[in-house]
């Protein structure tokens, strides 16, 4: 079946906007994706016709809201290949899911124990583990990267990075800066061989490729709704059910309890143990609609489209004098985020001039400051595509790059 990108774009009214005299070229989907009409309508329908709190009221609306919320849990479990809906914990974003993992998995850690992460992580998968190690006296260690932005597995093996003291290994599946797709299954095999648990940040992977948690190798996977055509305000933690049953609560409050007495409380079974208070009900409904939308197109088709767009973009951009790429220069094991610098131009200036021509990108350290320091740069500019990106938008990106380069660095011939 032909991938009809124009038909897909028609489902996103925002993509028809103009920026001054320029058509919008939205290339910031790694930051947040746009939302199709069907997702917005699903949230609207819920609020207008079925709004009530879940698992509390016995009236008709309460039953409908509960059914919608638990139906969303089952739909998302199906979307990632989970064994059962009870393996899905709703959070407010991936950051909260990763904090939940750090607080609960790390409850028994102490001096002499080690947690391993990577230098390419988003701050959301660095800071919670730093905080854990500060609380417990455990040691934080990390994978380095090669000059082309791949995990340096050889150096890790030589340094004995994963060893008998390792208790937790946590890594991103796809880098939000470099686009690198990491060998999660291989790292998980090394971790499990020494009895360590594996936590994966799937925020830049789950929206773009078929996910099967049974074969991924992770014990816990975190991802977020707003990067996969869903609403903001909802994230997901998937965990093996036998593991979730052993973990303590993360937050205390209503609905995560079994029995409360003044002297003590007992706690509900997973996933409810980890969902204190009123949950993101309408957001879960919207995320389930996003799963339907993505499956309707097909994750394999989406991945193939993004692969072609990324290859087209790299070919165009690498041919521009002054373009400096961070990360792999080919599309092998690569996601659609492309980070770069223009020689002699600050990323914030790049971002502003691009925006003046309708090209929406991001400039900064992308919540990955240690990775930028590793490459000896203060920040970078990032263009990130998704299922609705066209080659015309990549052409606009390349044209804006030449315009910006020549505006700030006339030595290139502008």
Number of domains: 2
Superfamily (CATH H level) name of the largest domain: Type I PLP-dependent aspartate aminotransferase-like (Major domain)
Q: Label the overall shape.
A: globular
Strand content: 15-25%
Number of H/I helices: 14
Number of strands: 17
Looking across the biggest beta sheet, what order are the strands in? 4-10-9-8-7-5-6
Q: Characterize the main sheet.
A: 7 strands, mixed
Q: Level of helix content?
A: 25-40%
CA radius of gyration is 22 Å
The parts where pLDDT drops under 50 for at least 5 residues are none
Give keywords:
Aspartate Aminotransferase, domain 2, alpha/beta, 2 domains, Aspartate Aminotransferase, domain 1
Short description:
With 414 residues, the protein is an alpha/beta fold. It has helices at 5-9, 37-49, 60-80, 94-105, 127-136, 153-158, 184-193, 213-216, 241-244, 281-297, 299-318, 347-356, 369-374, 391-408; strands spanning 18-19, 22-23, 25-26, 88-91, 114-118, 139-143, 166-172, 197-201, 220-224, 235-239, 257-260, 265-267, 323-326, 337-342, 359-360, 362-364, 380-384.
């Amino acid at each position: 079946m032909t991938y009809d990108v124009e038909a897909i774009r028609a489902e996103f009214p925002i993509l028809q906007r103009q920026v001054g005299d320029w058509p919008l070229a939205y290339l910031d989907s790694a930051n947040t994706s746009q939302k199709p009409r069907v997702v917005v309508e699903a949230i609207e329908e819920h609020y207008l016709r079925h709004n009530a709190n879940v698992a509390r009221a016995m009236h008709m609306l309460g039953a409908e809201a509960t059914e919608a919320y638990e139906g969303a849990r089952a739909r998302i479990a199906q979307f990632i290949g989970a064994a059962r809906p009870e393996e899905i914990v709703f959070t407010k974003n991936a950051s909260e899911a990763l904090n939940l993992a750090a607080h609960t998995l790390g409850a028994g850690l102490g001096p002499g124990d080690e947690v391993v992460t990577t230098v390419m992580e988003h701050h959301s998968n660095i800071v919670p583990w730093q905080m854990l190690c500060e609380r417990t006296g455990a040691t934080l260690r990390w994978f380095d990267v090669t000059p082309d932005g791949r995990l340096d597995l050889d150096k890790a093996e030589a340094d004995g990075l994963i060893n008998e003291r390792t208790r937790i290994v946590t890594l991103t599946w796809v880098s939000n800066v470099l686009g690198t797709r990491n060998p999660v299954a291989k790292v998980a095999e090394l971790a499990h061989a020494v009895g360590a648990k594996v936590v994966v940040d799937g925020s830049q992977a789950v929206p773009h490729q078929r996910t099967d948690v049974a074969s991924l190798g992770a014990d816990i996977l975190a991802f977020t709704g707003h990067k996969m055509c869903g609403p903001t305000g909802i994230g997901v933690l998937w965990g093996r059910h036998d593991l979730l049953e052993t973990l303590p609560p993360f937050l205390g409050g209503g609905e995560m309890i079994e029995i409360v007495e003044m002297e003590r409380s007992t706690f509900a079974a997973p996933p409810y143990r980890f969902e204190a208070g009123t949950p993101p009900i309408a957001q879960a409904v919207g995320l389930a609609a996003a799963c339907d939308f993505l499956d309707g197109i097909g994750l394999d088709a989406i991945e193939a489209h993004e692969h072609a767009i990324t290859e087209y973009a790299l070919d165009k951009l690498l041919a521009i004098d002054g373009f400096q790429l961070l990360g792999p220069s080919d599309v092998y094991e690569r996601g659609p985020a492309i980070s770069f610098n223009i020689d002699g131009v600050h990323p914030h200036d790049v971002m502003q001039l691009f925006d003046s021509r309708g090209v929406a990108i991001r400039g900064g350290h992308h919540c990955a400051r240690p990775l930028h320091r590793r490459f000896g740069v203060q920040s970078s500019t990032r263009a990130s595509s998704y299922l609705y990106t066209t080659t015309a938008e990549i052409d606009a990106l390349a044209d804006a790059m030449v315009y910006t380069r020549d505006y700030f660095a006339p030595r290139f011939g502008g």
